[in-house]
Amino acid sequence: MFCCVTLCCIAEELMEMESIRFKLLLLFSLWICPLIHATEVSYCDENVEYNVKVKGVEISPNPIARGKAATFTISATTGESIYGGEMVIDVSYFGWHIHSETHELCAETSCPVSIGDFNVSYTQVLPGLTPPGSYWLKMKMFDGNKNEVTCIGFGFYIGFVSTVADIAQ
């Protein structure tokens, strides 16, 4: 009889430990996984064969915190050397165009861009009063002859976190 009671107690403890592991795994998936997911990228026109193929976009931190620096790193590959050019960035918030800026390509990556893989990285501090929510970024890249070499779009999210000091600025 004692043996059966002991085995039942051991079985209950094992089930409780398994339940704790499951809860920890669930907590990890809900809080940590969204921070490390890849950003989905789409081409502006799926029927165009762009010279620059974008392999991915990394946003850090993700989600972006208002009033803090955010870095967008675009991994790409090119079949032709690029000796200059520019990037035109348009940002929309809930479908409304809210911001445009143009950057010299060589200010965001080393030029000339050789045939093969390269990264374009841009960091910006968003104001503390930036509204939280979902945004859409469209980026067109042009070579030195003003030929469009790629055009992509991707969504990103700005979180609710902001400090009182950020809002006061």
From TrEMBL:
Among InterPro entries, the record links this protein to:
Ig_E-set, ML_dom, ML_PG-PI_TP, NPC2-like
Q: Could you tell me which CDD domains the record lists for this protein?
A: PG-PI_TP
Gene3D superfamilies to which the protein is assigned, alphabetical: 2.60.40.770
Q: Where is the MD-2-related lipid-recognition domain positioned along the sequence?
A: 41-156
What SMART domains would the database entry show? ML
Q: Name one Pfam family in it.
A: E1_DerP2_DerF2
Signal peptide (residue range): 1-38
Keyword list (alphabetical) reads: Lipid transport, Signal, Transport
Which SUPFAM superfamilies does the entry mention? E set domains
Q: Which residues form a coiled coil?
A: none
Which family does the record claim for this protein?
Belongs to the NPC2 family.
Its job? Catalyzes the intermembrane transfer of phosphatidylglycerol and phosphatidylinositol.
Q: How does it assemble?
A: Monomer.
Q: What is the designated name of this protein?
A: MD-2-related lipid-recognition domain-containing protein
Q: What is the organism field in this record?
A: Stylosanthes scabra
